[in-house]
């Protein structure tokens, strides 16, 4: 058996286990629900104080009796004192219709007819900017939050989300600084997945309350939509978030190092830091995943941008980026698009060596890939699958003694 096969088996066994737990939980409660119940009850999974607050304001109809005495208390917080600001409450996600029809206006142009099908598809729907939400958590940003961890994920990668919640995505308070976590998802791009996984996702959210989902297809070229939807969501709901970490669901992250870095950078205005590329050239080789035809981008260089695997930005900057994004046409590569938004704002992202989102070292077999002392000194490292992430996390957070302190911070 190859490692790949083993991994596949591990995945299907985990899925079966997860399904069994879901079924058991539902049966134990004496009712096989058809799922409709989740939709209402899901909203009740929040802090009691917050729940009261929202009910008084008429946001949610029922109470969360279902959750009373439930052991599944995931949020590790000592005190919660939601500061509800008055101007924010009047707003909400204002997109309710999904129908945006394709724009065939340019189909007869020469430059268009020679494009690959995926770029044609992208261009037909490029003008469709915002979609409704299928899972929302308006309460997530209540109160002062020091660091909001935002993770791009897809519906089938529940095992990655599971490990992240246990490791670097754990919601906690460190030295009075609140850390919260959210996962960003679109709709499944495959019919079978939509049927089987959507209900599981809703159940997962009902347990953890940390999923945002929008009604656009979760495809590679739609990752930019995930970026713009998050920026809009953040601008709508999160007035008191100091910093955002945004990353992929297959990276290693050191929360401790992030906090240390942020402490040292508290005076930096419009902080945006990551694995920044300056003067990157658009890729013109058709077989590359990041290939871009000249018809779509005709300049020789991209503006500076940070690898989407993981970067840090200041909350107020995220709101400005939302404004900037609205002045631009969507671009199929999400991290480049964000670089274009930064350019509009004339903010230069900072490059830092503790962000390794374009791979750790060139040589895949290098010992560094398995060296916990190296990870201990990093902020983000691409790319680790769930079991490796768990192992590495445990090693880095054990009584690890690193003789040679790798100085990057
Ligand atoms: C099952 O659900 C139905 C309708 O939702 C409800 O009337 C009934 O009391 C429930 N049964 C139990 C055992 O909770
Ligand atoms: C959306 O679609 C429905 C039917 O599918 C149609 O009646 C409605 O006019 C459409 N709305 C817009 C804004 O195009
Ligand atoms: C397509 O062209 C028509 C006519 O020029 C214009 O009214 C329409 O807004 C265009 N559609 C889009 C989506 O830009
Ligand atoms: C992006 O999502 C929209 C809405 O689901 C879909 O119509 C469009 O085809 C997707 N675009 C790409 C390039 O996959
Ligand atoms: C590059 O593209 C822009 C907008 O798409 C266009 O206005 C400009 O003329 C193009 N420049 C060249 C050299 O093709």
UniProtKB/TrEMBL annotation:
What processes does the entry annotate via GO biological process terms?
A: keratan sulfate proteoglycan biosynthetic process; poly-N-acetyllactosamine biosynthetic process; protein O-linked glycosylation
Q: Which UniProt keyword terms apply here?
A: Glycoprotein, Glycosyltransferase, Golgi apparatus, Membrane, Signal, Signal-anchor, Transferase, Transmembrane, Transmembrane helix
Statement: the UniProt record of this protein carries the keyword Signal:
yes
Gene Ontology molecular-function annotations: hexosyltransferase activity; UDP-glycosyltransferase activity
Name a single GO cellular component: Golgi membrane
The principal localisation class reads: Golgi
- Entry's EC annotation: 2.4.1.-
Pfam families, A to Z: Galactosyl_T
- Signal sequence coordinates: 1-29
> What InterPro entries does the database record attribute to this sequence?
Glyco_trans_31
In terms of Gene3D superfamilies, this protein maps to: 3.90.550.50
This protein's pathway reads: Protein modification; protein glycosylation
Topology relative to the lipid bilayer, per the entry, is: Single-pass type II membrane protein
Which locations, inside or outside the cell, does it occupy? Golgi apparatus membrane
PANTHER family xref list: BETA-1,3-N-ACETYLGLUCOSAMINYLTRANSFERASE, UDP-GLCNAC:BETAGAL BETA-1,3-N-ACETYLGLUCOSAMINYLTRANSFERASE 7
**What is known about what this protein does?**
N-acetyl glucosamine (GlcNAc) transferase that catalyzes the transfer of GlcNAc via a beta1->3 linkage from UDP-GlcNAc to the non-reducing terminal galactose (Gal) in the linearly growing chain of N- and O-linked keratan sulfate proteoglycans. Cooperates with B4GALT4 galactosyltransferase and CHST6 and CHST1 sulfotransferases to construct and elongate mono- and disulfated disaccharide units [->3Galbeta1->4(6-sulfoGlcNAcbeta)1->] and [->3(6-sulfoGalbeta)1->4(6-sulfoGlcNAcbeta)1->] within keratan sulfate polymer.
The similarity annotation says: Belongs to the glycosyltransferase 31 family.
Q: What is this protein called?
A: Hexosyltransferase
Organism, by scientific name, is Chanos chanos (Milkfish)
Q: Which gene encodes it?
A: b3gnt7
